[in-house]
Structures are given as structure tokens and as C-alpha cells.
Amino acid sequence: MTRNQILWLCIAISFILHMWGLDRDWSMGKRAGGEEIVIPADFAIAADVPPANGLALEQAVDTGDERKAESAARRLRREARRRYFQRVREAIEDRKFRPGSDLAGLIGNVLYTFRIRPDDTFSDIRLKRSSGDPVLDRAALDAIRAAGGKVKRPAILRDLRFTMSVTVKYQYSL
User: Fold this and answer.
1) How far is Cα 166 from Cα 110, in angstroms, rounded to an integer?
2) How many CB atoms lie within 10 A of CB 153?
3) Buried b (16+ CB within 10 A) or exposed e, 20-40
4) Do 108 and 133 form a contact (C-beta atoms < 8 A)?
5) From CA 173, how far away is CA 143, in angstroms rounded?
6) Which residue of 9, 52, 61, 95 shows the fewest CB atoms closer than 10 Å?
7) Whole-model pTM?
């Protein structure tokens, strides 16, 4: 075989393997004991998600084909999680400047990690990266505590626990 023939053979094999890999279902099976998802959140990214849109499992499920139905249900849960986490981030953002707090002129980013229980309250709130200013760190902690339990999750996500990481950014005059 010539070099040109070997090159084209390698390209053909690569193409076949890629097509085979794309056609596979690479999702993991369910774990016993519930589902835990770690979601990094950054308030610099804005999302236009209307919170009033409710989701129902029946909206995306075609009962004629079980595989399509499972895929549609996964997509629906993923979209419900995305919307729920966006509303949690917005609730924290809305509470980061408490009345009477003097945070004018202070700039910094604080990273916290916390768990969201099935009743939508937050627990195990931990500082992962400090802003370097204890006042900002405390204000971010207060915002997260105040937002706990304020956002109700869609029924499709009931009984799940989540772990979420949130960067609370303070740039008061910007």
C-alpha cells in the first residue's frame, strides 16, 4: 500500500469509529441513594428564562417509542434543573445587598458551595474561595442563607438533593 492509500484508510476507519461512537447511548445508569449534581454558577452569565413556565413530563414524552421517551424525559429533567438553578442564582443575587449594609465601594468575588435539600432549603454552606474581605464574605453567606427555601422546585425534581457552587460578585457601582 502506498502512503496515500494508508492515509485514506486511516481517515475511513476514523470516520467509521466516530459515527459508531456518536450513535451510542453513553448515559450512566441510575445510582442507588438519589442523585447529586454539582453545578458551578457564575452571575456574570445572564440567562433569559421566564420563571412562570411550568414543565410537565408529558410535554416531551412520546409513548410510542420507549427510547425516545426516555431521552425526552432526560431532556425535560435537564431543562427543569437548569431553570431551577437559574432561579436559585437569581434569588441569591436579589439578596446580596441587604438593607442597612454598607458595601459601597467594595469589590470582590466569593465562592460558596452548599447543598439543596428536597424541601428547597440550603445546608452545609461552605466558603470555597474568599474575596479577601470578611465583610463581603459574610454578606455573600447572608445572601445564600436568606435565599434558602425561597425558590420552589418543579415537581419533576422532587426528592432530589443537589450540590451547588455559586460565585457571588460584588461590584457595587457597576
Assistant:
1) 8
2) 21
3) eeeeeeeeeeeeeeeeeeebe
4) yes
5) 18
6) 52
7) 0.59
Q: Of 41, 39, 61, 5, which is closest to residue 167 (Cα–Cα)?
A: 41
CATH topology of domain 28-171: 3.30.1150
The pLDDT profile of the chain, 174 residues, written as one tens digit per residue, is 899 999 999 999 998 888 877 776 665 555 555 556 666 665 544 444 444 445 555 555 445 577 787 888 889 989 999 999 999 999 998 888 777 777 767 788 999 999 999 999 999 999 999 999 898 899 899 999 999 999 999 988 888 889 999 998 888 654
Cell of 83: 431553570
Residue with cell 431551577: 84
107-116 sheet: strands from edge to edge: 38-42, 162-171, 107-116, 122-129
**At residue 85, what are phi and psi to the nearest 5 degrees?**
-65, -35
Which residue type sits at 150?
Answer: K
**SS3 of residue 169 by DSSP:** strand
Q: Give the separation between CA 133 and CA 46, rounded to whole angstroms.
A: 26
- Summary count for the chain: helices (H), strands (E): 3, 4
